[in-house]
Design a protein that fits this description.
It is a multi-pass membrane protein. Its main location: membrane. By secondary structure, the protein is α+β, with helices and mostly antiparallel strands. It folds into 5 domains: 157 residues, Distorted Sandwich (Calcium-transporting ATPase, cytoplasmic transduction domain A); 51 residues; 287 residues, Calcium-transporting ATPase, transmembrane domain (Up-down Bundle); 151 residues, 3-Layer(aba) Sandwich (Rossmann fold); 144 residues, Calcium-transporting ATPase, cytoplasmic domain N, CATH 3.40.1110. 50% of the residues lie in helices and 16% in strands. The chain has an 8-stranded mixed sheet with strand order 8-25-24-23-9-20-22-21, sandwiched between helices. Helix 20 crosses helix 21, helix 25 packs parallel to helix 28 and helix 28 packs antiparallel against helix 30. It is elongated, with a radius of gyration of 34 Å. Bound molecules: adenosine-5'-triphosphate. The site of adenosine-5'-triphosphate (ATP) has 20 residues, from helix 13, strand 16, strand 17 and strand 18.
């Protein structure tokens, strides 16, 4: 049978005609048919943005002011026929480019792998059942089910819509959501006016819809205009950008001072120009921290991967820094702090209280004492969008877990009433009105069933002691149960009129669901508290339930609860006062989240906020770190967030904070290592020149040291694991500058010690009667030894380096140290290399002396750190 071709003008045809033209039915395609169509139409994917080719990426490694300076130096040394120097400088540049190239490739692979983890999924009808599939698997003829917050996965002809509106800015530029409905529109309507269509890539801002896929992949409107997938994030964060600016400013300063030094040496000191020039180039090259940008990018890439391993997917790189500095985490309750694996445990009806047994979603269990819960069960099953699936004896939910639990409960009481009832209309659940209503037709006629938050549903019921039932609901909530009220009424007509729902419902009973806290969330909350981070719960659930769960989870102040209504009564100033101490917010709507973020930020706090619904997007954008739920979160929430939790688990937030702090520490370590090293190397030569002394290290030797240490040692720091006390420290202030007074002091101290050690060993060697070349060789080795010890010192920035773990190091550290030792031994002892670098073999005793000075250097900086940490601890 030939496959249908895509429809030309679906917006102007009646929905039935579109179904017929695509040979589709309202129950969806069969699995086989979907496979057949996919083979013909291809996957529902837009062509990938072509990544930059490897050649261009390699060339771009040279596009950096620091590298320009090095290349210019190479040209000048070449012109002066100092070929060795030219060679070494070019080797520095090339090594840097190769490492930058490889690591950037790695970073981009990491980012694109992560983007794939965020690929959207879609709920479709296949063979009459609702299933969730990859967005890429959709084919023309599929029936897609959508709700507010979803991203439209293909071009759809709307078959059914309720309160539907979509934001189509990416296609039409119009940022105000457009209302949508199934009725056909004129054939010549402009794209933005085709109300009967939903376009791929746009967002549903409200309502629910059922739509027929009419075009997929590059045949969609967005595909036709060459729309692209999520644009590529640049590999930068505020800190890296800050360092980039600093590096540029630094190179300018280095060039200026080098020029001045050259002029001084030649005109005032009357030194030979060519010799002077080579020395100055050595200084400039040594002083420039050319490895810094590459190493910082690598550090970030490693951080992104580490977070992904802990189920926290970075959508925007700055999230890494932001999440590491948060001082408050505002989190949802259901599914994040709790498991979201619900079980109905209790029911209260006018006939009495009942306990319901059974585990998981299996519809097997008993009601005690025996009683007639069939009306309650019928309402629970009919007012329900979920499905239960049994595979190999294991029952799972398709849809909302709470509704799944209600189905399981109903199954324990009666056979599935949905088999014999036809749904005519529904008011979907919305966290603002907190109830759901369904109109069905069956043998008993037309009935409306309502379920929702007790205070909402009780208000709609007639002839009831509302006070009494509120108390019953409170009592259930106080046990940590999630409470729902159910009601029903006979109804004529085919539509539910919300205005007439309000009165005359017949109350059926309350249902209490258990949703146990996640054990790992309890541990993670404790970890956050130790790390000086306050955890606040913001939930749509009942105040009593929220309080009970907050206490079990271990929040600091579980007893005071503010409800959404309380929040509405407070003005911004009062709210800012209250949020400091209140940790539980219940019966909130998404709008309250935005107010809470703003109030917390007004207190100078750095806020992480979780969210899943479309209405959470503004709060997620406003937060310092917006976190969306990967499993139950809407596309709208994911797009507003910087971080997505693959498992919706609070423990993953704590893990992300730990990784975020680690990355920031490692960036700081890289900087704290590179800057004093560069300064120490450069100052050695500068000082000798200014003092009119012989150079303790020749220009070419400085270049060599720079070549082998510049990038290699720094990279080891990018792989540093989390330091032991990382989650026992208070969060770093949001505005803390990276180039802090402490860092400047560290640069001064280490540079001074470098100078003392290098000049010391040089003077000692000359004093021993060693030839100049040997003295210089010893000075050069001294410098490399100092750098290695400095590396070990820097690895523990916040604690002592004198622990077994610190001494054991990492594989990368030892690999780098081994490589450098081998290289140093080679240039010191192998005659051909000696000829190039002008070195001499260093006698064993002198070699040991150099090592001893390295140890002494380590002891001095370590004592200084202990004093500093001691002072900090005391204050
Ligand atoms: P959070 O995820 O923010 O911790 P929540 O999931 O409990 O909180 P909402 O989903 O806004 O918050 O639910 C608020 C209340 O609305 C629930 O306590 C329940 O009483 C009611 N409710 C939730 N889901 C449904 C539903 N599908 N049908 C009817 N009522 C519902």
């Amino acid at each position: 049978m030939p496959l249908p071709t895509p429809l030309a003008m679906p917006h102007s045809l009646p929905a039935e005609a579109c179904l017929a033209a695509l040979q589709a039915g309202p129950e969806g395609l069969s699995h086989d048919e979907a496979d057949r169509r996919r083979a013909q139409h291809g996957p529902n994917r837009l062509p990938e943005i072509r990544a930059r080719g490897p050649v261009l990426r390699f060339v771009l490694q040279f596009h950096n002011v620091l590298i320009y300076v090095l290349l210019a130096s190479a040209v000048v040394t070449g012109a002066l026929q100092h070929w060795v120097d030219t060679g070494v400088i070019l080797a520095v540049v090339l090594a840097n480019a190769v490492i930058g190239f490889l690591q950037e490739g790695r970073a981009e692979t990491a980012m694109s792998a992560i983007r794939k983890m965020l690929a959207p999924r879609a709920a479709v009808l296949r063979g009459g059942a609702r299933v969730t599939v990859d967005g890429a698997d959709l084919v023309p003829g599929d029936i897609v089910l959508l709700e507010a917050g979803d991203k439209v996965p293909a071009d759809l002809r709307i078959l059914e819509a309720r309160g539907l509106a979509a934001q189509e800015a990416i296609l039409t530029g119009e940022s105000v959501p457009v209302e949508k409905a199934p009725g056909p529109v004129g054939a010549d309507a402009a794209l933005g006016d085709r109300r009967s269509m939903l376009w791929s890539g746009t967002l549903l801002t409200q309502g629910t819809a059922r739509g027929l896929v009419v075009a997929t992949g590059s045949r969609t409107e967005i595909g036709r205009i060459g729309g692209l997938l999520a644009s590529v994030d640049s590999l930068t964060t505020p800190l890296v950008a800050q360092m980039d600016r600093f590096a540029r400013w630094l190179s300018f300063l280095i060039l200026l001072s080098s020029g001045l030094l050259l002029a001084y040496g030649h005109f005032v000191d009357r030194r030979d120009f060519s010799e002077m020039f080579m020395a100055v180039i050595g200084i400039a090259v040594a002083a420039i921290p050319e490895g810094l940008p590459a190493v910082m990018t690598i550090t970030l890439a490693i951080g992104v991967q580490a977070m992904a391993r802990r189920h926290a997917i970075v959508r925007r790189l700055p999230a890494i820094e932001a999440i590491g500095s948060v001082s408050v985490i505002c989190t949802d309750k259901t599914g994040t702090l709790t498991r979201n694996e619900m079980v109905v445990a209790a029911a209260e009806t006018p006939a009495g209280s009942f306990a319901i047994s059974g585990a998981g979603y299996a519809p097997e269990g008993a009601v005690t004492p025996a009683g007639d819960l069939s009306r309650l069960a019928r309402a629970a099953a009919l007012c329900n969008d979920a499905g239960l699936i049994c595979r190999d004896g294991v029952w799972t939910v398709e849809g909302d877990p709470m509704e799944g639990a209600l189905l399981a409960f109903a199954g324990k009481v009666i056979p599935d009433p949905r088999a014999t009832a036809r749904r005519l209309d529904a008011i979907p659940f919305d966290s603002r009105h907190r109830f759901m209503a369904v109109l069905t037709e069956s043998a008993e006629g037309r009935m409306v069933h309502v379920k929702g938050a007790p205070e909402r549903v009780l208000r709609m019921c007639a002839g009831l002691d509302i006070q009494h039932w509120h108390q019953r609901a409170e009592a259930m909530a106080a046990q940590g149960l999630r409470v729902l009220a159910l009601a029903e009424r006979v109804k004529a007509g085919k539509w539910i009129d919300p205005a007439h729902l309000e009165d005359g419902l017949r109350f059926l009973g309350l249902i209490g669901l258990i949703d146990p806290p996640r054990p790992e969330a309890i541990a993670a909350v404790a970890e956050c508290r130790a790390a000086g981070i306050r955890v606040k719960m913001i939930t749509g659930d009942h105040a009593g339930t929220a309080r009970a769960i907050a206490a079990r989870i271990g929040l600091e102040n579980p007893d005071r609860v503010l409800t959404g209504a309380d929040l509405d009564r407070l003005d911004d100033a009062q709210l800012a006062l209250e949020v400091a101490t209140v940790d539980v917010f219940a019966r909130t709507s998404p709008e309250h989240k935005l107010r809470l973020v703003t109030a917390l930020q007004a207190n100078g706090l750095s806020v992480a906020m979780t969210g899943d619904g479309v209405n959470d997007a503004p709060a997620l954008k406003r937060a310092d770190a917006g976190i969306a739920m990967g499993l139950k979160g809407s596309e709208a929430a994911k797009e507003a967030a910087v971080l997505v939790l693959a498992d919706d688990n609070f423990a993953s937030i704590a893990a992300a904070v730990r990784e975020g702090r680690t990355v920031y520490d490692n960036l700081k370590k890289v900087i704290s290592f590179e800057l004093p090293t560069s300064a120490g190397e450069a100052l050695t030569v500068v000082l000798a020149l200014l003092a009119g002394l012989a150079l303790p290290i020749t220009a070419v030797q400085i270049l060599w040291v720079n070549l082998i240490t510049g990038v290699t040692l720094g990279i080891a720091l990018a792989f540093e694991p989390t330091e032991a006390g990382t989650m026992a420290r208070p969060p770093r202030p949001r505005s803390a500058p990276i180039l802090s007074a402490a860092l400047v002091w560290h640069v001064v101290l280490v540079a001074a010690l470098f100078l003392a050690a290098v000049f010391g060993i040089f003077t000692y060697a000359i004093g021993q009667g060693h030839p100049l070349a040997l003295a210089q060789t010893m000075a050069m080795n001294m410098m490399v030894v100092l750098e290695i010890f400095h590396l070990f010192f820097i690895r523990s920035l916040h604690s002592t380096s004198l622990t077994w773990a610190a001494a054991r190091g990492t594989r990368v550290v030892w690999a780098v140290v081994a490589a450098m030792t081998a290289a140093q031994l080679a240039v010191t002892y192998l005659p051909p290399l000696q000829a190039i670098l002008g070195t001499r073999p260093v006698p064993l005793t002198d070699g040991l002396l150099i090592l001893a000075i390295g140890v002494a250097f380590f002891v001095i900086v370590e004592i200084e750190k202990q004093i500093r940490l001691g002072l900090k601890g005391a204050s």
